[in-house]
Amino acid sequence: MSWYQIGRDGVRLQIQAQPGAKHTEVAGLYGDCLKLRLASPPVDGKANACLIEFLAERLGVKRGQVKITRGLSSRRKNVFVAVAGFQPKALLAQDRE
Hints:
Blueprint: E1 4-6, E2 11-19, E3 25-30, E4 33-38, H1 46-59, E5 66-70, E6 76-81, H2 89-94
Parallel strand pairs: 2-4
Antiparallel strand pairs: 1-2, 2-6, 3-4, 5-6
């Protein structure tokens, strides 16, 4: 899958963010990105903070282990998650309960 890359020091994710949604959730794959709906407006970094909080909570890591490395002011973002052994496909499976 092209929306993530697993490295020795963590995982790089390509995210397509949709701020201003009713709920924060994984919407599925969107081209070569994982699409996330964010229940925060794209104002003053609120959507970015929501994205980091959501991924950290979902993955069971500290917020400091999730960093937006590209696309702070764009809907398309590159995110680095500093956690070894994480399987990104789990993000898709968790919303299908």
